[in-house]
Design goal:
Distance between the termini: 42 Å
Low-confidence stretches: 1-11
Number of domains: 2
Largest sheet: 8 strands, antiparallel
Radius of gyration: 29 Å
Shape: elongated
Number of strands: 30
Strand content: 25-35%
Mean pLDDT: 94
Number of helices: 11
Oligomer: single chain
Length: 563
């Protein structure tokens, strides 16, 4: 007992007297020149000794085999740490792989394997239990004290590993700058906390616990004094996760105009020479339904108070209803002059498979068409004149590609014909719903693809619970700059690189299937970060597993003091 007490007191003394910067080991890959640049930049900014930069010679690929890891990373790293009777092994607490060091060893996160290099139990199927992990509301010793005390007393060595990485070396360097900026200036008014949960689960479902954890994290954020947004997918448009800003993108090769509208609304208007009767036709090259409750509408009229509108729902209908209504209406000076609602069943193939919609206006009769099929009609007995000089379309959640917009009179004389031979987007008046996720400071949610949903402030920390959020963090699925903001085209489900490009300071994710119960919960990370633990400590307190698929990205020393 006296020996354990002596060891504990000695550990506390070491943890308090040796600066953390001296206990950081930076890993760089000599085969990737930018790796050295990132490592040197971090060392200079944090005053980490030059002797604490370790040079690997390994593949520049994000993925290496277990054998390559053993030969090119683990053996040389252990040799370095074990030299001089293990002086560096005892000293080092944090290991920081720099841009260019592989991300994955076999099917595991390289960093998680490095963290547990000295844990033994090589015969055990991963994952191992993380002995430093603790629950929300607990206040375990800081990692330095725990490592030098409890762990050392039990002859156990573990590292907190968090990398400086991302889609580019500049983004990796920027993580250091943003961490320092956050430490200097972060306060309760620096940004907004966003929490994104489903709100559709029942207590009998395993997902219910995940939803509750996210809700609890939002409540904790409010109690801390942060402006907090709890996004409930069950109550949102089309039950969407935090949506990206809607956008339009002209394709000069295909001569088409793509409308990206995930969880959002988009509209366009244009004017033409006035007509008494007209056909407004929209031709599509394709469309993609998002979740439920998608609609598209065509409109002819003379402003916001006088118009004729055709609203077309797509399957699955709102709330997965078995029926929905096609609505056709005439409004004059804000009052309904004629209206019909055609009840339709959720026959997906018939309803969603079309190449054109048409709104046809004749004196005394209004009709709506899907391809060559009339789907709704109403007699206009109001006698109220409505000159037609504007046309427009609007959509909720539906993503689609336009190939032609046409307005013609009953004789076929064309007043507007846009086949998108050139980029004509400037000819339209656009109505896009406001972007969400601006001024993001803390972000935690689930479950969906890596949309361009957030803009982070310096010092921000965030993550998304989804499978394969860090399958790749340097190589986009589609590197074309034109699709940067387009749905999930750039990164698929890889939230880690998406958030890094959006400006996050620290994040975490999974290089393979993580299982929800073995994924560091954001509420736990934030609880300890807000209590004064640094990012490295906070992540490893929250992460229950070691030698696993989870990876942290950001400066492990980042420790914001909420001013």
């Amino acid at each position: 007992m006296r020996l354990l007490c002596a060891l504990a007191c000695s550990a506390i003394a070491i943890a308090q007297t040796v600066p953390l910067k001296d206990r950081v080991l930076i890993l760089v890959n000599d085969k990737a020149p930018e790796s050295n640049a990132v490592g040197q930049y971090y060392a200079a900014k944090r005053n980490i000794p030059a002797a604490n930069i370790f040079h690997l010679k390994t593949s520049t690929s994000e993925n290496i085999s277990k054998e390559e890891f053993h030969d090119q990373v683990e053996l040389p790293l252990k040799k370095f740490l074990d030299a001089n009777d293990g002086a560096m092994r005892r000293k080092i607490l944090y290991i920081v792989p720099a841009y260019g060091v592989p991300l994955k060893a076999g099917n595991l996160a390289l960093d998680s394997v490095v963290s547990m290099m000295y844990a033994g139990h090589e015969e055990m199927k991963p994952p191992l239990r993380n002995p430093y992990a603790s629950a929300v509301g607990t206040r375990p010793p800081h990692f330095a004290e725990w490592s030098d005390g409890v762990a050392a007393a039990n002859n156990f060595k573990m590292f907190a590993v968090s990398r400086l990485d991302g889609p580019s070396a500049e983004i990796a360097k920027g993580l250091v700058d943003k961490a320092l900026a956050g430490e200097a200036s972060l306060n309760l008014k620096s940004g907004i906390a966003y929490f994104d949960y489903q709100g559709t689960r029942s207590p009998s479902e395993w997902q219910y616990a995940i939803d509750n954890e996210i809700k609890a994290a939002a409540e904790l954020s409010r109690k801390q004094g942060f402006e907090t947004v709890l996004h409930t997918q069950a109550d949102s448009l089309c039950r969407s996760q935090m949506p990206p800003a809607p956008m339009y993108l002209y394709d000069a090769v295909k001569k088409q105009l793509a409308i990206e509208n995930t969880g959002a609304t988009t509209g366009l208007d244009f004017s033409f020479k006035p007509l008494d009767e007209a056909d407004f036709t929209m031709a599509l090259a394709g469309q993609s339904v998002q979740n439920i409750g998608n609609t598209i509408a065509l409109k002819l009229g003379a402003g916001d108070r006088s118009f004729i509108r055709f609203v077309y729902p797509l399957v699955p209908f709102q709330n997965w209803d078995s029926h929905a209504d096609i609505v056709l209406e005439k409004v004059v000076d804000g009052a309904v002059a004629a209206r019909t609602a055609v009840h339709i069943a959720n026959e997906e193939k018939a309803i969603n498979s079309f190449s054109s919609l048409r709104l046809s206006v004749r004196k005394g009769r209004i009709s709506a068409w899907r391809d060559a099929t009339e789907v709704a009609a109403v007699e206009d007995k109001s006698g109220k004149p409505l000159p037609l000089s504007q046309a427009g379309l609007s959509a909720a959640c539906l993503c689609f590609t336009l190939k032609q917009l046409t307005v013609a009179d009953p004789a076929g004389v064309v007043s507007w014909d846009d086949r998108f031979a050139t980029d004509s987007t400037a000819r339209y008046q656009w109505h896009l719903s406001a972007p969400s996720g601006l001024k993001a400071l803390w972000v935690w949610g689930w479950y969906g693809m890596a949309f361009d949903s957030y803009r982070f402030v310096p010092g921000a920390v965030g993550a998304q619970l989804t499978s394969f959020t860090a399958l790749s963090i340097r190589t986009p699925a589609n590197p074309d700059p034109k699709v940067y903001h387009q749905s999930a085209a750039r990164w698929g489900g890889n939230w880690v690189p998406r958030m890094l490009e959006q400006g996050v300071t620290a994040t975490w994710g999974a290089v393979d299937e993580p299982y929800a119960t073995l994924y560091a919960p954001g509420g736990n990370v934030f609880d300890h970060l807000w209590a004064g633990y640094n990012f490295g400590d906070s992540f490893y307190i929250a992460e229950p597993a070691g030698r696993w698929v989870m990876v942290a990205v950001g400066d492990p020393l980042y420790s914001p003091k909420i001013h």
